[in-house]
Each structure stands twice: as C-alpha cells, then as structure tokens.
Recover the amino acids of this structure.
C-alpha cells in the first residue's frame, strides 16, 4: 500500500534519515521504535506531509505522493499532545474534519466515532472536562472520522500514566484490527511496540537497524543495539575457539557458532529469563557444558519477578537473571549463597561486535 524509498533528510549539516526504505502492507500495524534522536518522528512527519525529504520518494498504492501537501494526503494523525481545540466540545473536535458532509451525516458520523472509542455520552464536554485518556480517545476519533487510508500515531500514549496507557494500547489495537486501517506508530517504548504492532521497525542513528515481528525481534536480535534496546539481554565478549565452542573469561561454552570463523571475536547474548539457577549444595542430575558458579550481588523487586544481579568469576562477568517471587514475594534463603547457573546453548545468541569495538580490539 505504502512504499518508502530511500528517504534521506538533513537538518543543516546533521543527517537525520540515511536512506530509509520500507514497504507497508494494507491493514498492517507498523511500529517505528527507537531512542530519541533516531529519526523516527522525522520520518512520520515526512509521511504526513509536514516535512519534505531531501531525497527519496513516497508512493501510495503506486502513486507518487512525495510532493503532495498534508491536506491532499488526508491521513489521520494523532499527536502526543492531543492537539484538540480547547474551546470546542468533544463532538465538535471530531466533526472538524467532516465539513464536506451534510449536517445530518456529519452528526451521525460523530456519534458513531465517539461510541467507537467509548465516549458516546461525553460529546458535550470540552477537553478541560476530560481526563488525559479521554482526550486521547477524542483525538483518535477525530483522526478516524474522515475514513483515512493511513493512520499515523506520534507517541500517542507517552503523556499518560502507566495504567491508562496499558488500557489504551489494547483499545487502539482493537480499533485498528476492527477497522482494518493501515497504521504507522512512533514510540520509544519497547513494551508498547511489542504488544501492539504486527511488525516492529527498530531505528538507530537515522537507519533501520532491524525489522520483523515482535517475536522475531525479541528471540533473534541481529545487532548489539537491538539486543540491548528490545528487552533486556546479557551481552558477553567471547572468542570462537572451535566449532560451536566459545571462550568467555576462563570458561568454554557450547553454542551455535556457524556464522563465525574460529579465532573470531563476537558478543554472546542471553536473556535473563533463560538463566537457570540451582542450589550449589544440591546440583541437578545430569552433566551440562554450560554450568558455572556465581554469587548474588543484588536483587531488585519487580512484582511478579525479581531481577537478580549475579557475578560469575569464571566468566569474568556480571549476569542478570529473573526469579519468580511467588505468593509471598520473598526470595529463598539459598539464593544468597553460592549458586549454580545453567546457560542453555539454544538460548545463547551470537552477535557481531560493533565495528568500533573490532577496531579497538
């Protein structure tokens, strides 16, 4: 439906977008995920026509729209700041983009959209009489009212508290699927991107670092940046010493090394939830290639789980691990002594070292 072809953008001498290429399928929900300054909001502003690219093109259903002004594109846009008219009621805000419709049809569409976002009885209120979550629902209803081909969301939930944000994430996803509207959302919140999008596009320094389904990005990050930005991951410098064998610190671990030559250096990635903890005084039966000793440095309580910081002398590294806190939310006493850690080979990801790190080495 939408094709973004080699878009670049500079502000003075500073490159902001460096050859962005992306195709969006009809009905797809795409999230542009990345830290502040990565170029994701600039790309969204180019999509909606507020900014123009320096080079590259945009095509919508095969038609070049690169030079079209925002009004001609008629995309629905929801901003972080809501951008509602403070002196107009919720119903009047939703009706603002429907001036071409006869009055009766306009009123019918406004009522339909307010009901769709759960505000059917709130149309008479002005924005100051609504909560932040309700104002964002009005902004969403206003964006959807003209039946746009594309919905653009610019960090739409970042100004809301966590509980309201979680509810609206599910609501926006439900509406998007119900209406089948193609959607591109900008966010820096990884949980938001993973829970809402069909495809997540991770951006870094003006480029697309990796894209894929939320499950693909989480299970198989391809670069150090993605591994560290999407979820939490232990990253350990390692050296390939033999086929499917790497050396970390003073320890050799078994993992898949097919993409690397013997003698090469790499990063070994392991999610905290994949680390298996055992008592040192009663080790589990069966030998393992990837069992090491560790001690607990600190524990951070996160409700249903605790994040454990563990130091392993043989790896010359500190690892994060998750531990379910259980009904009483307490850690067992044995976790405060010497521990055994199993690092399952299938859960160990081999990642290339960044170019700057390789040069330094």
């Amino acid at each position: 439906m939408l094709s973004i072809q080699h878009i670049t953008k500079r502000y003075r001498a500073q490159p902001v977008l460096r050859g962005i290429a992306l195709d969006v399928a009809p009905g797809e929900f795409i999230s542009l995920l990345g830290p502040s300054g990565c170029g994701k909001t600039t790309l969204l502003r180019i999509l909606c026509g507020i900014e123009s690219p320096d080079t590259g093109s945009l095509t919508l259903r095969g038609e070049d729209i690169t030079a079209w002004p925002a009004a001609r594109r008629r995309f629905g846009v929801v901003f972080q700041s809501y951008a509602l008219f403070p002196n107009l009621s919720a119903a009047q805000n939703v009706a603002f983009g429907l001036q071409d419709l006869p009055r009766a049809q306009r009123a019918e569409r406004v009522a339909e959209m307010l009901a769709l976002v759960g505000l059917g009885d709130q149309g008479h209120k002005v924005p100051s009489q609504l909560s932040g979550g309700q104002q964002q629902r009005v902004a969403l209803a206003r964006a959807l009212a003209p039946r746009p081909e594309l919905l653009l969301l610019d960090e739409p939930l970042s100004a809301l508290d966590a509980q309201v944000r979680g509810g609206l994430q599910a609501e926006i996803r439900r509406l998007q699927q119900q209406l089948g509207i193609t959607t591109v959302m900008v966010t820096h919140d990884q949980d938001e991107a993973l829970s809402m999008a069909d495809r997540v596009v991770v951006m870094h320094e003006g480029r697309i670092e990796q894209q894929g389904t939320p499950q693909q990005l989480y299970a198989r990050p391809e670069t150090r940046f993605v591994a560290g930005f999407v979820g939490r991951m232990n990253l350990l410098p390692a050296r390939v010493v033999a086929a499917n064998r790497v050396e970390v610190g003073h320890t050799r671990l078994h993992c898949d090394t097919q993409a690397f030559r013997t003698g090469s250096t790499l990063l070994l990635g392991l999610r905290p939830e994949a680390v298996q903890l055992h008592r040192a005084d009663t080790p589990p039966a069966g030998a393992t290639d990837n069992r090491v000793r560790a001690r607990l440095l600190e524990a951070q309580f996160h409700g249903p789980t605790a994040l454990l910081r563990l130091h392993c002398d043989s790896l010359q590294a500190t690892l994060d691990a998750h531990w379910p806190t259980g009904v009483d939310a307490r850690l067992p006493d044995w976790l405060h002594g010497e521990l055994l850690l199993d690092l399952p080979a299938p859960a160990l990801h081999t990642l290339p070292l960044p170019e700057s790190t390789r040069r330094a080495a």
Remarks:
- The mean pLDDT is 92.
